[in-house]
Amino acid sequence: MRVAKIAGMLMSLTLPGVALAQAPAAGYGQQLEGFAYPHALHTFAFQSQGQALEMGYMDVAPSGKANGRTAVLLHGKNFCAATWEDTIKGLAAAGYRVVAPDQVGFCTSTKPEHYQYSFQQLASNTHALLQKLGVDKVSVVGHSTGGMLATRFALMYPAQTEKLVMVNPIGLEDWKALGVPYRTVDQWYERELKVTAEGIRAYEQKTYYDGRWKPEYDKWVDMLAGLSNGPGKKVVAWNSALIYDMIFTQPVFYEFPKLQVPTVLMIGDADTTAIGSDIAPPEVKARIGKYPVLGKQAAQMIPGAQLVEFKGLGHAPQMEDPVGFNKALVKGLVL
Questions:
Q1: 215 lies in some domain
Q2: Taking the complete model, does pTM exceed 0.90, yes or no?
Q3: What are the residues whose beta carbons fall under 8 Å from the beta carbon of 237, sequence distance 6 or more?
Q4: What is the pLDDT of residues 277-287, one digit of tens each?
């Protein structure tokens, strides 16, 4: 059963970047109750930091001839496991078992009142889920913030990581070190309180999709808007602020040279995502979020890394061009 005991204990807010499409008037539940996932949703109950927590996840069997391998898909900050829908279909058809979890603080998983967020903690939670499922070896695919998490997972569990794939990961640069001003958790929270639904759609269209928009993106807007405006909106907002602080203060790219696993970087080169760019001085804003440069730099830092570039695509190539992306991903996962 899902934990919902802390709704209403914190101030209210909608997630930054959320556009209100056709979310129900009452929104979705604190753990996204009411939103349909593309495959059966399971729950992993576990203890962490003295609390009983839950992670929602999908565990999808191969639809094509099974190859005996498992792919773990790690979502980004403004995404959920469900947004991997087309990728799951492509990998299952290629013979993979696919596990797609929602991390603590996101989507169908618990939103704790208090939690010490770190990429190490989220990687440990994910590893515990895989142990529960009896999965030892995995190919880890991380998108956006999930790319930072996938890197940390591969650093912590190299023996279990057959392949590491990062899809337009954020954190390919240290924004704070480059001059982006620091926000406290409270400041992140205050920022979130002022965000409108229309603002998130405009942000995603400009930053994620290079000015383009497709009707199929609307359901993901609906998903986030319903979560953010539902009965759990206060605790959803608080966890969002904590997670932004984690992203900003815990860069992983300094450790890229330490990666010991085969790595593929998949980069939509029209992406301009950079945390804090909205408050960065003009001279700083002008030099951050340059993915055509960042992808090449990261590939040079990671031993033996393969770089796959999607010309003209933005932050989510798996959603903009599912067919082309899946073809490249299946090829990249070959051992």
A1: yes
A2: yes
A3: 10, 11, 12, 13, 14, 15, 189, 192, 193, 228
A4: 999 999 999 99
